[in-house]
Amino acid sequence: QVQLVESGGGLVQPGGSLRLSCAVSGSIVSIFVMGWYRQAPGKQRELVAHIISGGNINYADFVKGRFTISRDNAKNTVYLQMNNLKPEDTAVYYCKFSVLTTSRKSEYWGQGTQVTVSS
């Protein structure tokens, strides 16, 4: 079965950096989209960044110039490098993969990792 495992969250001071990782395993034929979302208390889940198999990348306006999404196709892993973190970046971060399994496209979510930015 398909499973996503996230890591890299934690507590960091404003202006600091964190690097999130998300690896998918299971019976996967191909990966179409790798993305990161976040959800803060009292807010809806929102897109942070995503990258498609062809290499096109989209970022939310509030992270442009600070965050970088990247991938390692050999490891089926997506990363989110977060620099110059702000308190408003505090949220649970979720990875999402759009994948092809056996004759079916499906979306899978990671378990979430907490990012807390505080002095």
Which key phrases capture this entry?
119 residues, mainly beta, 7-stranded mixed sheet
Structural class: mainly beta
- Percent of residues in helices comes to under 10%
What would you call the shape? Answer: elongated
Tally of DSSP helical segments: 0
Spatial gap, N to C terminus: 40 Å
Instruction: Return the average pLDDT rounded to an integer.
Output: 95
Uncertain ranges: none
Radius of gyration from the CA trace? 14 Å
Largest sheet: 7 strands, mixed
N-to-C order of helices and strands: EEEEEEEEEEE
Q: Tell me the fraction of residues in β-strands, as a range.
A: over 45%
Q: Strand tally, please?
A: 11
Report what the structure shows.
This protein is mostly beta strands and 119 residues long. It contains no helices and 11 strands. The strands form 2 sheets. Strands 2, 4, 5, 6, 9, 10 and 11 form a 7-stranded mixed beta sheet that branches. Strands 1-3-8-7 form a 4-stranded antiparallel beta sheet, with no helix packed on it. A hairpin with a 4-residue loop joins strand 7 and strand 8. The N and C termini lie far apart (40 Å).
